[in-house]
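Internal QA ticket QA-208
Title: Verify multi-chain structure generation after dependency bump
Assignee: T.L.

Test input:
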Amino acid sequence: MKYIDEFRDGAVARGIAAQIAREVRCDRRYHFMEFCGGHTHAISRYGVTDLLPPQVKMIHGPGCPVCVLPIGRVDLAIRLALEHRVTLATYGDCLRVPASDGLSLLKAKARGAKIAMVYSAGDALELARRQPGQQVVFFAIGFETTTPPTALVIRQAAAEGLANFSVVCNHVLTPSAITSILESPEVRQFGTVPLDGFIGPAHVSTVIGSAPYEHFAQEYAKPVVIAGFEPLDVMQAILMLVRQVNDGRAEVENEFTRAVTREGNLKAQALVGEVFELRRSFEWRGLGEVPYSALAIRAEYAALDAERKFALETRRVPDNKACECGAILRGVKQPRDCRIFGTVCTPENPVGSCMVSSEGACAAHYTYGRFREIAVQAA
Amino acid sequence: MCLAVPVRVVELGAGDAAIVDLGGVRKEISLALVDGVAVGDYVILHVGYALTKLDPAEAERTLALFAEAGVLPQ
Amino acid sequence: MTAMDEARGKPVKAGYVRPLDFKHGRVDMTHGGGGRAMKQLIEQLFAAAFDNEWLAQGNDMARVRLPAGRVVMATDSHVITPLFFPGGDIGCLSVHGTVNDVAMAGAVPVYLAVSFILEEGFPLAALKRIVESMARAAREADVAIVTGDTKVVEQGKGDGVFITTTGVGVVDERIDIGGARARPGDAILLSGFVGDHGMTIMSTRESLAFGADLRSDTAALHGLVAAMLAPVREAMRADPSRGIHALRDPTRGGLATLLNEIAGQSGVGMLIEEGAIPVRPQVEAACEFLGLDPLYVANEGKLVAFVAPQDADTVLAAMRAHPLGRDAARIGTVTEDPHHFVQMTTRFGGRRVVDWLTGEQLPRIC
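Actual output:
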């Protein structure tokens, strides 16, 4: 597959790995946060950690929109399906997120709720077109990558005057999340989470461009390297970050030049601006209330806003007391620091969202990484 | 949240519709978010929509950078 | 004698029954009622298609003789949607599935029993197609469908048709092949490309449409198993540590699930190489589109063998000489591991664990 296979070449990986090993200073550690869940998944799936020298530590960030979705929002979706009897269209990632009362969307389906898994926002719209007598609600989640498609279908639905389609908008913003991490006491004051730089999200950046990250480099003096999703991209980005740290630079660099420009996709940005506006505040699971971090549907499109249409209120639901997802999402703790990791909380029986999504730090570690902590011999 | 794949545009359809190919598998997608896409171009596809065009020259440049990393002098 | 003849005043033929309308007819509740309609369905469709001495006797059971050896029995239910797909249908799938389960003991499958749960309103044309496909698959596999059952449920209570098959076969008394017999050092041999069946099914589902040249790999594997056993049978009879220790086919949950199952049953670990696992480019690409992992995608015509190291090359050669094993490959080795991890060296060069599948594999957007 073109533009995929070349970026997964093992021999080239070893070359870059050797270079990273040559350039790291033995007398210091390098802590880099990969913000995006897709990067977490790539690092785990390809075993990138095996190729990094011990001085380089990767911290998993909160860039998994499923992981940061508060329980209260999933409850809202379940209520819509079970009480309002709508057809709830959702991406596959959301189906197993554990919500209140031992429910999830999948479990609600088993109780008779009409839950339709869709691959695309357009599919949800199509569902509504095909069942004019049935209310269809699209449960939209995602960072800036996934927001433009939602904006498109809202605009299309409005143009078609579809009365049986609406959207629950849970779209969140990357720069706000990065800010809240950088502003957190553990990073700013206590230094408990040493952070030397960020690997910036790949596809979010194709939409928003590299410009928004310049603020972090300047304000917080942290280098950012935007990386593509393939493992070679990640490794090259790590090399670039190591160099910045060694040089004492804090710049925004772009490794993913084949898809990311400084200004991003202006057409998509304009579309998003037309349909959505900033929420003053939004709860992120694990990060608490974060100001100006999420989007709501504008008044002009109120008819397509499920929260208005069904007069829905989000109830705040605290996390399970033993759940360390919040600390893990902020990079303050590791999965194995969580009391219930791998025992009560497993991918089959997830207690918190870090375990539900295959990109969550806990799921990735459980699935791909936990064997490292146990010595294994070959026959 | 960015599972996206680089795919080749093989056919342009009505409105924003297009057919893309990845490794011999074809799918119908929407080009509504990207302007000026021609048959033969590569785009980044996410949840049924093209997000941006892929720049082949930049891709080559990036691959060259990777290769260079392995042979830089100490 | 036709209805027209009747009308012309000719004597009514005793026991005349209007033939089933296989073009436009549909299953209705009488077909499961136990009366004439059901008898007709059995005679004109099932018995006619499966065509053997046992069904011809018209009993609710079959008296059969088994060749000498240890009896192996297996059962499978099939609830697949869609019923017809490139490369096969629920009919041949249900024959292959049970034949394969029996074959995984190293046994020769001999008889099948089949039971149908039909939904009221199901078109007889489709049912005929399915039954004929089953008959063909059974003939090719050299098994007889000797007894069966039919029930009809009300419209809305079934997915068209559910089929359950139970199979019986025999294996040499001195051959011991089972999931608990894999041993550290065993070679892990895979018979061919993985992911074909599951991705073919995915590609026919609505919201995930691919115009790809994918076909299900559904096939009866007992011929392949026999070919694999032939060169090592005598050694195995004399010494249980030789030859093939375990066999299994990677159906739901894919190759990864199979490896984890055997690792658990046998109390061993495994180390496999990603680069050695054959996956077709279209399957890779389809999985890329959906964020799926080919290791977890279902197969219906593949097997994995765990073979004593000294016999690995022989068995692999035997696989490759057989049409269903032409693309067979050695994908790894069984290891000693109290934690029963299945580890994989990635094409990229790193190492990862290939864990149990959690829930159902859902296409990701993340």
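Spot checks passed. The first strand of chain C starts at residue 70 and ends at 78.
Status: verified.
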